[in-house]
């Protein structure tokens, strides 16, 4: 009996629905089901119903739910239908869960499966079920109806799914042609594949257990058979597909059982021969029982196969819906190929033969594809004699089918029949098929060409006619003669190009043997039997011309193939686009099209090159005409807006093509250069003319440099060198142009130009490299840097205006575009720094804006710092300390120099924050950054004591506060290096201090930051505590402020009191892993960069340099998350 499930188990929760609605289409969301129990007679049955109702949720939830990730979120499927919708990655697990649920309560699990098939049909209605307990068959048959209730507007279908009677209720609009199997789009194509996969996996997982319980398969087959008889298309189509896939899966089980049965029989025979006849053997009895078990299962499987075939296939292979007929034909063809022992007979083949006459091409196509699989196997062909004799004429006529795909597949089928069936095709049949090489549909013509080549021209399998003399040339000569005879006999002399095109893919070897062709053509017919007559020579001449044209042009003859793929039409279309449009993206796409088609490796190069040359001639002609009119005017001044627009369009078209094509022979360089020189002298050109002229001149010089680097005389190289210098001066002039777009274009071109000239690949032409190599002068580097300072890092003042929402949106869009341009400009300049075109110290000006402009340019600056550090660690560190020194000097100049730098000022706080960020970029590996950090301290100490008279302290160092800046790098020093740096610092100081202790507080702090042991660090904290109680303005300098874009930071005094456990375990593990040999190997290097080392330097005992020396002493105020953000050293590991 079937229990009535409660509402909680049948309806998903609101939360689950919310997740599901985002995963599957709304049309896929199905309503709940309700199951009605009927004809309960006894108290025991009612009690069982109540028990089942209480256990519904826990028994069915596992079979109906599966979790999977989609876009980072967990999606919970509630029904089998939703599992199939989501995909088949969870198919195996959900089927396993369903099998387990079936073993616990087969009624509930089976109802889930029944509801699954109903939902896959697109039904949004309700399924109810009642047990079949009537003993009167006629009463049951009367209930098998499909009716329509006019009052409720619902349709009902009641049918048998033994042992149940199912009733499906759905709205009347279900008749609409909209259900999952016919919906378009990749989503629903995947659903069809997943649906078929689910059925295959279900049968596979059930074949070892519940498949033979005489309950599951009976119910499923009854269900699908009942739905297949419905008047509703969705039910018929879905159930037919499910039934045929079920049949295919069951046939696979049958094949496995058959193999197991034969293996068991063989083992039985071996065991029987091994033992004597008098003794009984347990192994023998076991094998005998196993064999009988396999026979019983095979019988059951055979009954299932017959039931599905008779119940579904026989009633649906002539369905009015072509998709259903095509499904039946596809599966019957697959069954015959998979299990020919049962299905390869006339009882099943006749259905394929009959449907060859179907009115719908997709049905005919499925029949042909199924027959191809059969005729391709020689071991099966002998069983096809009756079918072949009965339907051969129909198949021979199908290459003339109105549907192109059907015609092509029919031709391929006839090719297989010709190869594997002896004398199945008559000469008349072959002559008819040969003529198809002249058809206009190229795929059919190529298939017919294969048939003609293998049937008439080649010697495959026909060794008796293979010429024994002449070798390969003799074989090609005989093939050519056969081809000539066929061409003359076909009497289609004007279509030799079609014939050659059809044979080209199959007979290309002998069709390209022009030596053999000319030999045949030149033979005299006097006494030579192999000589050709005049008609044959004329035909051979036409064949030679057609083969040469096919090899040179590489495209089908006129009229064969789609017009849009014809090369001439394509080139005309592209040319029209270029002439009509001036948008740069369109022009660049057209230029790339010509570039791809102009590859010298393909046969169409000559034709495309001619078209490209013709186009460039027209474009340059237009430009020359406009320029002539332009220079004829007084002083060349152009005021006509229309003329400017035409000049602008012509220059843009040529610039777009000059980017990918070498247009040097059109001499565009001198024409565009004259425009730029005129602008320098008069300054009256429109910006619309300057920009494309500048771009075109740049491309012209690049093509000249590329050509000169390969092979040029010294005089040509010197002349080109002068032009390079001249163009650089022009770009320098335009850096200060009044128009912003011109300035930016000149800057980008100049940066790329310098990068290319400084990194030339001359193909071992050292002379060309020496003459054309160009590094920027000091004045040019200064101008580039000045451009960066004035146009990239300058903040634009925002004016408060009352704007509408649309105006605000446009304003934000303009700001975003402006920011993108600035980022491109900065990236172009930073490339010069990274590739050593300009000095590395130029990066100091960029690094100044690391914190303030972090949101806009932080990633570019960080990448620049990383690349320069990879190139040269010392020079990169020198740029950092130079940046800090320049900022300190600027800060000091802006304040009263008599009192020194105000440690509480926002500018000084920002400097310390920048120094802290710089220190974080060195990463965790102190050994790698050892020399760099030491150099920073050395340069910083020397800068801090500039202006002092010496160690006697007669003059107070004005830059002493800079020691607070470089103290941010102290924790990056190894302990031995801290002592060395401390000793170097002592050279600049005397004890006791000659001035007030307050003035020397930066020195005190810096000294204590270099002390190695914890006691000395405690003294630092104590001195800082005393310093913080003083009433001077310097007392607040240890606290970081959020001012002028700087980031907030806790004071050193507050940070020092934090738990030292803030140091991460990964830091300690990484530092402890540094070997002593690694420390020792860098001591020599460090000596070179630290000339201030005390005698003995790093010559310490091995006991003194231990693992503890490598542990990093982080300042307590530096947060670990900041380090994760700012560490940029590519080869350092945290």
TrEMBL record:
Pfam families: HEAT_SCC3-SA, SCD, STAG
The SCD domain, residue ranges: 313-398
Residue spans of biased composition, Basic and acidic residues class: 48-57, 1100-1122
Organism of provenance: Anser cygnoides
Name under which the protein is recorded: Cohesin subunit SA
Entry GO MF terms: chromatin binding
Keyword Cell inner membrane in annotation: no
Lineage per the UniProt record: Eukaryota, Metazoa, Chordata, Craniata, Vertebrata
Location(s), subcellular: Nucleus; Chromosome; Chromosome, Centromere
Assembly, per entry: Part of the cohesin complex which is composed of a heterodimer between a SMC1 protein (SMC1A or SMC1B) and SMC3, which are attached via their hinge domain, and RAD21 which link them at their heads, and one STAG protein.
GO terms of biological process kind: cell division; chromosome segregation; sister chromatid cohesion
Region named Disordered: 1-65, 1038-1134
UniProt feature, compositional bias: Polar residues: 7-16, 28-41
Domain of life per record: Eukaryota
Function: Component of cohesin complex, a complex required for the cohesion of sister chromatids after DNA replication. The cohesin complex apparently forms a large proteinaceous ring within which sister chromatids can be trapped. At anaphase, the complex is cleaved and dissociates from chromatin, allowing sister chromatids to segregate.
One GO CC annotation: cohesin complex
PANTHER family named among the record's database cross-references: COHESIN SUBUNIT SA, STROMAL ANTIGEN
Ranges of biased composition (kind: Acidic residues): 1123-1134
């Amino acid at each position: 009996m079937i229990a009535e499930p409660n509402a909680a188990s049948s309806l998903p929760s609101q939360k689950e629905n919310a997740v599901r609605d985002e995963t599957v289409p709304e049309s896929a969301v199905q309503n709940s089901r309700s199951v009605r129990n009927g004809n309960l007679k006894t108290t025991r049955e009612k009690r069982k119903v109540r028990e089942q109702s209480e256990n519904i949720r826990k028994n069915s939830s596992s079979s109906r739910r599966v979790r999977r990730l989609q876009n980072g979120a967990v999606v919970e499927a509630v029904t089998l239908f939703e599992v199939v919708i989501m995909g088949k990655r969870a198919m195996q697990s959900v089927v396993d869960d369903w099998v387990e649920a079936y073993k616990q309560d087969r009624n509930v699990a089976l109802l889930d499966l029944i509801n699954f098939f109903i939902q896959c049909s697109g039904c949004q209605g309700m399924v109810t079920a009642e047990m079949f307990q009537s003993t009167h068959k006629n009463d049951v048959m009367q209930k098998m109806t499909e009716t329509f209730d006019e009052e409720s507007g619902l349709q009902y279908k009641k049918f048998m799914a033994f042992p149940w009677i199912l009733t499906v209720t759905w709205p009347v609009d279900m008749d609409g042609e909209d259900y999952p199997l016919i919906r378009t789009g990749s989503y629903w194509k995947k659903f069809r594949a997943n649906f078929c996969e689910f059925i295959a996996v279900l049968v596979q997982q059930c074949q070892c257990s519940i498949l033979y319980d005489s309950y599951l398969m009976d119910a499923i087959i009854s269900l699908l058979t009942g739905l297949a008889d419905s008047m509703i298309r969705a039910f018929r189509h879905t159930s037919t597909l499910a039934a045929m896939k079920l049949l295919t899966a069951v046939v696979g089980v049958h094949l496995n059982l058959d193999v197991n049965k034969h293996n068991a029989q063989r083992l039985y025979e071996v065991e029987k021969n091994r033992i004597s006849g008098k003794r009984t053997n347990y192994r023998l009895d076991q094998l005998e029982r196993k064999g009988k078990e396999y026979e019983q299962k095979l019988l059951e499987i055979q009954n299932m196969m017959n039931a599905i075939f008779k119940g579904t296939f026989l009633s649906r292979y002539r369905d009015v819906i072509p998709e259903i007929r095509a499904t039946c034909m596809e599966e019957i063809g697959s069954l015959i190929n998979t299990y020919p022992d049962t299905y390869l007979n006339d009882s099943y083949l006749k259905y394929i033969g009959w449907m060859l006459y179907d009115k719908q091409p997709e049905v005919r196509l499925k029949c042909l594809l199924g027959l191809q699989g059969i005729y391709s196997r020689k071991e099966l062909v002998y069983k096809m004699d009756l079918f072949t004799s009965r339907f051969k004429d129909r198949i021979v006529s199908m290459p003339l089918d109105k549907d192109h795909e059907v015609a092509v597949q029919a031709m391929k089928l006839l090719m297989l029949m010709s190869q594997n069936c002896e004398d199945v095709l008559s000469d008349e049949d072959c002559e008819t098929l040969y003529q198809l090489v002249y058809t206009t549909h190229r795929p059919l013509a190529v298939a017919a060409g294969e048939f003609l080549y293998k049937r008439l021209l080649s010697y495959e399998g026909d060794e008796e006619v293979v010429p024994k003399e002449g070798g390969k040339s003799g074989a090609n000569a005989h093939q050519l003669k056969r081809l000539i005879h066929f061409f003359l006999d076909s009497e289609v002399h004007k279509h030799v190009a079609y014939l050659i095109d059809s044979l080209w893919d199959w007979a290309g070897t002998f069709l390209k043997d022009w030596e053999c062709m000319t030999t045949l053509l030149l033979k005299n017919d006097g006494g030579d039997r192999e000589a050709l007559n005049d008609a044959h020579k004329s035909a051979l001449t036409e064949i030679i011309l057609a083969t040469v044209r096919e090899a040179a042009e590489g495209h089908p003859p006129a009229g064969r193939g789609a017009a849009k793929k014809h090369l001439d039409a394509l080139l005309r279309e592209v040319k029209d686009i270029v002439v009509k449009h001036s948008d740069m993206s369109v022009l660049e796409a057209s230029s790339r099209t010509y570039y791809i088609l102009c590859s010298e490796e393909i046969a169409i190069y000559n034709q495309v090159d001619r078209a490209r040359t013709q186009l460039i001639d027209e474009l340059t002609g237009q430009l020359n005409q406009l320029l002539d009119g332009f220079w004829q005017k007084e002083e060349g001044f152009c005021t006509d807006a229309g003329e400017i627009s035409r000049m602008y369009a012509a220059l843009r078209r040529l610039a777009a093509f000059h980017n990918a094509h070498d247009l040097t022979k059109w001499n565009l360089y001198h024409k565009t250069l004259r425009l730029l020189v005129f602008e320098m002298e008069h300054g009256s050109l429109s910006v619309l003319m300057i920009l494309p002229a500048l771009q075109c001149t740049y491309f012209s010089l690049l093509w000249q440099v590329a050509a000169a680097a390969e092979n040029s005389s010294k005089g040509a190289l010197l002349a080109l060198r002068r032009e390079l210098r001249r163009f650089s001066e022009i770009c320098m002039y335009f850096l200060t142009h009044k128009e912003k777009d011109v300035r930016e274009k000149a800057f980008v071109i100049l940066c790329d130009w310098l990068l290319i000239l400084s990194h030339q690949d001359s193909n071992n032409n050292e002379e060309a490299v020496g003459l054309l190599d160009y590094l920027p002068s000091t004045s040019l580097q200064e101008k580039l840097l000045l451009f960066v300072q004035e146009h990239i890092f300058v903040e634009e003042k925002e004016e408060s205006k009352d704007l509408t929402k649309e105006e605000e949106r446009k304003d934000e869009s303009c700001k975003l575009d402006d920011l993108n341009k600035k980022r491109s400009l900065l990236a172009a300049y930073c490339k010069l720094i990274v590739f050593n075109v300009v000095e590395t110290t130029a990066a100091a000006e960029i690094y100044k804006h690391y914190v303030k402009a972090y949101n806009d340019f932080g990633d570019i600056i960080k990448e620049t710092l990383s690349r320069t550090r990879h190139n040269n660690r010392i020079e990169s560190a020198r740029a950092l300390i130079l940046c800090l020194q320049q900022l300190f000097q600027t800060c000091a100049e802006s304040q009263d120099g008599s009192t020194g730098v105000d440690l509480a000022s926002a500018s000084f706080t920002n400097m310390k924050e920048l120094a802290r960020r710089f220190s974080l970029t060195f990463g965790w590996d102190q050994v790698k950054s050892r020399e760099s950090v030491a150099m920073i301290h050395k340069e910083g100490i020397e800068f801090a004591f500039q202006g002092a008279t010496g160690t006697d302290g007669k003059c107070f160092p004005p830059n002493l506060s800079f020691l607070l800046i470089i103290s941010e790098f102290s924790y990056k020093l190894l302990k031995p290096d801290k002592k060395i740096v401390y000793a170097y610092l002592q050279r600049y100081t005397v004890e006791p201090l000659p001035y007030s202790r307050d003035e020397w507080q930066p020195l005190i702090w810096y000294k204590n930051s270099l002390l190695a042991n914890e006691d000395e660090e405690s003294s630092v904290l104590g001195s800082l505590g005393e310093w913080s109680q003083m009433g001077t303005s310097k007392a607040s300098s240890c606290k970081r402020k959020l001012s002028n874009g700087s980031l907030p930071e806790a004071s050193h005094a507050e940070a020092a009191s934090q738990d030292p456990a803030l140091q991460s375990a990964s830091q300690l593990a990484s530092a402890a892993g540094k070997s002593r040999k690694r420390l020792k190997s860098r001591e020599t290097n460090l000596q070179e960069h630290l000339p201030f080392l005390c005698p003995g330097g790093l010559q310490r005992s091995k006991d003194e340099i231990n693992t503890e020396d490598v542990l990093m002493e982080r300042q307590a105020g530096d947060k670990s998350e900041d380090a994760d953000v700012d560490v940029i050293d590519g080869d350092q590991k945290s």
